Every structure is written in C-alpha cells, then in structure tokens.
Amino acid sequence: MGTGPDVGAVELRVHGVSGAPAETILDHPIVSRVAGDQHAGFYRPRPGTGPPGGCLPGVTVEAYRWGALTAGAAARTGAMLLLLPFMLGNVAIWLRPPGPDRAGVLGILCRLLAGTLTVAFMLSMIGVTMNLVGWQCVPYVECRAGRPWLSWLAPLPVGPRLMLLSLLPLLALRLFWEIGARSSRALEGFTATAPTPAPPPQGTGLASPGFWDDERIAYWLRQVHVGLGASTLDAGLLNGLSAGHRGVVGVILLYAAGALVLFCTLLLCLPVPTGRTQSRTLLRVLWVAIVAVTGLTLSYAGLSGNTRIVVGQLPGFEGSAGGLVTVQGVLLMIIALVTVLRRRPELSGARPFLRGLGTPLVGALSVITGTAFSATLDFRVADLLDRGDIPDPVRPNPPTFGPLEPPVAYWWAALAGLLALVVVVTAAAATLLGSRRRRRALADRVVKRDYPDAPPEAAPRLEVVRRTIAKSQVTDRFGPVLAAFFVVSALGLATMGFDLLGIGPTQLVARVSVHGRMTAVTTAYATDAGIWVLSLLVLSLVIVGFRARRSTGVRRLVAIVWDLGTFWPRTVHPFAPPCYVARAVPELTKRVTALAGQGPVVISGHSQGSVLAVATILQLPTTALPRVALMTNGSPLSRIYARLYPAYLGQPALCDLGERLDWRWRNLWRDTDPIGGAIFDHHRGGQLPCPDPAADQVDIRLRDPSGVTVDPADTVPPPLERHFPYYTNPAYQKAIQDLIGMVK
User: Fold this and answer.
1) Is residue 273 left, alpha or beta, with left meaning phi > 0 and alpha meaning psi from -120 to 50?
2) pTM higher than 0.90 for the full model?
3) Hey, is 454 helix, strand or coil?
4) How far is CA 33 from CA 44, 187, 220, in A?
5) Which pLDDT tens digit goes with each residue over 327-356?
6) Distance CA 608, CA 636 (A)
7) Do residues 558 and 81 touch, judged by C-beta distance below 8 A?
8) DSSP labels for 26-59?
9) CA-to-CA distance for 193 and 175, rounded, in angstroms?
10) 3-class DSSP state for residue 109?
11) Largest distance between two CA atoms of the chain
C-alpha cells in the first residue's frame, strides 16, 4: 500500500444526468477531446492552460461526457416522446424481483405485453384514418362540407378509399422502424476490444459478456413487431370491407392475417435465434408472409366495389379495441401473479419498491400511457371532424350528421385516467403530509449531531438546513403513491367486460341508475373532463418535445427522463428509445483498460455516472481490475437502483463489486442530497452490510453545509451543496489520494 499518487495515475470523471459540459466536469474553461466523438468523448484540459478544479498533484484528470447521447439526438426529436409507452414497456422487465426464472416466463409475458403496445398503436392509427375519416366522416355530406382535403375521397368506392387511408398507418409503422434502425446506427454497435471480462458474480448479469449489446435482439424484435403491426392493419381493413358479408377471397385473406398474428405471437414466445442460418430462415418466412398478406389485402381492397355502409364504427373495430384491452388486462394479471410467486426479497438485501412488484406496475403504466395517447388522438380528431360536437349516446349528434364515435374502450380509459389522476395526487399529498413529522424528526437529529455548538444567531440558517434535509427524504416516501396507482390500475381491469360488450360509462349508468338520464349526463361530463385531462397531458408532452428542439433547458429535462428510462438494453420492445449504455459502457471499458495498462485509474462517477462506472467495472477484464479503483458521489445505487432493480443491482451485486475491487471503493454522500445516499450504511438508507468488514469503509458521510455561521473572511454562510458534484470538496480529494495509494 503506497503513500501517494503516481505520475501515471488518472482520475476519470463520469457525469450524471442532463449532460454536463466537459468544462463543468473538469472545472476548467479550456478543454480538448482526446478520444471519442461529439456524441460521447473523453476530455482533458488543454496542455499549458493549468490544472482542472479539485486536481491532486501528479494526477491526470479526464472527463467522459456522454450526455449528448440523450440530450442531443434523442431530445432534439420531439417525436421521441411518442416512444414513451414503448420505453416503459422495455423498462418493466428489468424491475423484476430476484429469484430463478429458468423458463423465462416473465420475459415471455413482458414481450407479449410489448406486442400489444404495437397493436394498440396500429389500432389507434386505424381508428383515425379508416374508422373516423374513411368510414364515419367521408360518407356524410355534413362532415366533409367545406373540407376539400376530404371531399376528393367521397366519389371513391369504400374499398379503394379504405385502401388509400390504410397507407398512413403503414407509413407510421415504417417511421417507427426507421427510428429504431437509425438509433442502432448512431448509438450502438460499440464493442470493447478488451479481453473477456471476469466471470459474472452470483446474482447479477451485468458482468456477462455482451450484456449491453442489444442490437441482435432489437433487430429480431423489430421484424416481429412490424409483422404484428402489418397483420393488425390487414385484419382491420378486411373486417371493414366485410360489412356483414364476406366473399371467399376475403375470408381466406382474413384467416391469413389472423395466422400471421399468431405466427408473430409465437415468435415473441421463442428465444431469439443465436445462429445466423436459423435467424435468416425465420425472418425470410416472416417477410414473405408480411409482403404476401399485406400486398394481397391492399389489392383486394383496391379492387373491391361499393360496400354497404353500416352506421357507426368500422366493422370489427370496436371489438378489436375491446379485445385488446382484455388481452392486456389478462397479461398484466398473469405478470403480477408470476412476479409474486418468484420474488425473493431476502436475496436483494434491500426492501424493493412495492415489495418487488415493479414489473407489473410499470407494465400497467406503459399500457395506460399508450391508451392515453391513443384516446387523445382519436378524440381530438373526432372533435375536429364533428366541429366540436362531442359524440355521446346521451347527447347524440343531429340525425343528419355522422355518428363520429371512438371505441368504448377509450371512453373507459378517459374516465379511469381522471380517477387515477385524482387518486395519485391525493395519495401524493397524503404521503407528503403523513411523512412530514418523521422526516422532520430525522432532520432534527442530523442537525443536532452536525451543529451541536451553533450560536443562537444561526437559528435561521439551521432551519433552512432542517427543511432541506426533510425535503431530501421525499424520494424514499413514494411507496404509497405507487401503491395507489397500482390499485387504480387493477380496478381499471374491471371495465374489460364492458369493453367487450360495447357498453360505455354513460350507457352503463343510464341502465343501472334510478335517475338514469340525469346521472348519465353527469357521468358524461365527468368522462368529457377525463378526455380533456388526458388530452392536456399528452399535448403537454408534445409541446415539451417541440420546445426541446429550441431550448437547451427543456432538452436537458427531456434527457433526464431518457437517461433513466433508456439505461437498460431493449430486450422487450424494439421501438423504445436507444440504450445509450450500449455505447457508453463498451467505450468506457476500452478506455479504462488502456489507461490501466499505464498506471492506476480511479473511475469517479457522480449520480447516474456512478451507475455507469459500476457497469463498466463489471465488464473490465481480469488483467485491468487490479489497477482500477472506484469513487462514487451523489450515487443512487443503493437508494434507488437497488430497490428498483434488485435482481441486477441488489446487495449481492454491490458486495461482489466491492470484492472484485478488493474494496478499493469510496462513496461520498450528504444528508441534503435528494438522490444520492449511502451504499452499505444500513443506519441511513443504505443496504444491509456485506459480510466483509471492509464494506464499512466504503461510505463517507459529508456534513452539508460545512458550517451555519458566516466565516470572518466571507459575507454569507457556507452554501448547501445538496446533489452538486463533490469534486472540489477536500474529502473528495483525500479519498482519491487514498484510492490511488491502495492501487499500488
């Protein structure tokens, strides 16, 4: 064990969310890139311009800036916000509880649920183009009057009209394909050239070779989801052309579309082929089926004559929407059951959120978000087409006007969305008020311990510190809010039967209520309010996406969501935003391996950067590990990640990480930090201690602020640092020096 740093020692700083500039990370105004590119690069101060902030003598400080991977290309595209349901569906599987799943049942269920999200997206596009425009609006003079962009469709027979309108959903599906393919070219495909990493520790898969390389899985799933989307469109178009009767050709094509749906569903249940021959054969069969069925369906529709118009919605569309909601509800219930049966809380070493039920919770959130997008799109288009007369059975349109009606499932979704908003807001308020005394008591204990001799004139400053510490504990108190959302989601499944029967909220109330009409009108107003709440939320996301293209602040805000949601590989839904770690970790692994060959390396990760640092160390080869140490500060590893992802970053994974490094690991944290916390200190939000006593040396608590009185040489008291990077703190520099000394 040495006494100080070597000339060849490197401190590699990795920033957290929101994409801090390299100048900020290094605390130096002039920097130059020494590796990487404009999306993710390694920076050092330009030679001859002085040392960076917080630098130790003889230590080279380098910054890895990865924020442009999310704060750049992803956030500049407002359409990326439309991928939110897919992102949530992809995240759900990673929240699974620890425990064996040898048959991969939970993964199969999550992939099937992700498939329903693609089907829901296609149904929403069909609902707008073929149902509202082509079937309900164009045939009615009052609806198309004064709208030349619709009037030209009126002379066309129903078949060619629906065929032309069906091209729009296909184009939308092609757009999502392009987003997924483009992201893989821009952010993925980076593989480390270092030797094979050390064997993975028990209880975690982050050390598995190729863990972050998700392009093979995403490419495979992309083909299958395109098949699901195309077959959904084919079935919708063929059902619409039936209108009460089906010819032989139509029946054959409808069965073919159904068979294609089943074939794609079967592919989602099978493991992704590892051999090129098997993969190419299955994909060739899939694409032949997609092109043949879709091409024949479009040709059949284009050659069809006039079809009898049925008043109301496109034939089969109402049942498809209701059936999809039923399938999603059943899948969520099975996922919840499987999760309960396989969870093993004691294996994670920490109490997971919702007792390990994060997978069904986030799965339900992805379904609800997707339904909100679909309902908003259909209702707003219906409002536009009927010129503001919201259709409802209690308040029908004039007899001569087309009944522009979205499916019943969207009416229930609107009512459930309003209820969920009220319940969640109420639960959040109750949680904040109910935990206030406990949080305040904790803050009092911290203040008394840290400032026992504070003078009376410091009382106002002490109160500010006390409030800050109490507010920082809110992060740990969101369990009741998530539980309330989970309960509301479960109650929403009770509407599945009404979806299948085509009974909306107002119709149900009118049938069962004594004061039928008056109660139904009240329910109609409540449902309308729910529609507008959903619409405002979705439109707010669209506005945020639009502003992200022009505002750096908004772009960083959007990037924070992507930083947290796109951390994991896309193994469930291929249309989710790209996994930036698929580039960051291999790139860091390669750089650290090269630097470790020259001298000691301390990977210093702040906030989300600490999670990247851990993922990098787990991928390092055995030859590089002895020359590497870890510094984490403001780290959410134990406080958030271990509780959200207990199967991957629970206590066994973090303990094994410490053993890999021979406990060359220090973690700085503050009581005022709302995100970071202790790793192994079970007295203050950390996990249970590891069996190795060396784990007790990892956590270093910093008093924040350093004082509550004004220094004689200053004009204000020391600032509250909260989650601010720790680089310039003397304790940080001391820890870096100790870690470099431990490497020798």
Assistant:
1) beta
2) no
3) coil
4) 7, 19, 36
5) 888 898 899 888 888 766 555 555 666 666
6) 7
7) yes
8) HT-S-EEEEEE-SSSEEEEEPTTS-PPTTPPTT-
9) 33
10) helix
11) 94
